[in-house]
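Notes from the 1:1 (GR / supervisor)

We went over the backlog. Supervisor wanted to see one worked example end to end before approving the batch request, so GR pasted a single chain during the call. The sequence is below; no edits were made to it. Supervisor asked that the structure be written out right there so they could see what the output format looks like.
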Amino acid sequence: MNLHFSKATQHAIPNGFMGKVTRLAVPVAIQSALVAILQLADVLMVSDFGKEATASVGIATKWHFVIIMISAGIASANGILVAQYWGKKDTDSAKTVTYLALKYGAYLMLPLTLLIVLGSDTIMLLQTSDTEVIRLGSTYIWYSIPVLMLTHCVVIAESSLRSSGNAMLPLILGGATALINICLNFWLIKGGLGIEPMGVAGAALATTIARLFQVLAIAVALYKMKHWTLSANFLPNPQRLTRSFAKLAVPSTANTIIWAFGTLTYQVIFGHMGTTELAVFSMMGPFEGLCYSAFFGIAVACSVLVGQSLGDDQFAQAESMANWFIKTIFICSVALAIILLIFKQHVLSALHLTSDELYPLASPAMAIFAILLAVRMTNMLIIIGILRAGGENTFCLRMDFIAMWLVGIPFLAIGAFLLNLPFEYVYGLMLTEEIVKFGLCFTRFLKRKWVKNLTLTPA
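Structure output shown during the call:
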């Protein structure tokens, strides 16, 4: 992978670069791993109650995931601008952007929460016709009513903290939240200390309580630190900044919605293939998230450092760092793929996927996932860490629509319903999306249209 633009670019990486990468990537990676472990813990603990319980948690959390992706899209725009204004040393604009992200996200979260709660029985018919799975999934959603709004506050706060170089606070508070959540999972799902086993409802209630703790802890920590998100001033006339934020947030949010509904559509297809297929797909999802964790940390570090350099007009430095990040994530993901293939049997055993019913589906799917891991991680790095850092949100929206909705989903549906292919072949067809995406995003990266400063000059 020969990535270089000029001799000047190759030598533009600043002093202390590796230290900055480590301080950003490692905390984000650990925190992302904790989130994935929590999701995996939910699925594994309720799996003792049967494959219907496993599938129901997979379905309910997928709806949460779809809505939270709206927050993620807003947080992406927030993080891009905060990083660039931080590079410009303009905390007033950074605080104003954070406030805009919280406000407009809340306008979306509240009605969407009501929609999925009140319509839980109906919306889950999209994914399965199993009445027991629908009943349990609806129970999970009702016990986790506040989670979406609480998560929105967390996602926005963490994006501002990381984009201003503080990845440790989100990690510390995220780690405490994860510990609380896991302890509550053991207690509420399995029962004990006067509490009857709650099963699926216990998993949802544990998540709600832990997320409430996290929001309160972030608020207290920022107050104690007299953090810039509280101490800086709001811009008196933020109209120009609002338009700048909307220009990034609208395509970014549309992008995440299209992508999230695409992943939901994948689950719908697997759900209608059968409850066993849906259970395997639901159990592999959190494990895939765990594998992505380290690479997500690298992508976030790339986004922050490249964004700060672009905001400070250090374009050669931004390009040089982008090259380094691509090479690094590609090599690391190939190494992880080899490890997964060697220890596949142990991984499937840890995921409770070695039963006679589940293993024939899970084993080949795990091999396919490992083989294409490097392509998927390189895509993530280029999209999250480079293109979006340079404001290429509209391109990313078009790319995801083409790769997912014009290639991945149609191929998957044809394989599942017209050709009646086995689970492993259908799972493999889902990943054609990543191959198309790689061609599109890597070509865009080489065109260098992302190399630009997005901050506003004084009016």
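Supervisor's comment: The CA atoms of residues 33 and 291 lie 8 Å apart.
Batch request approved.
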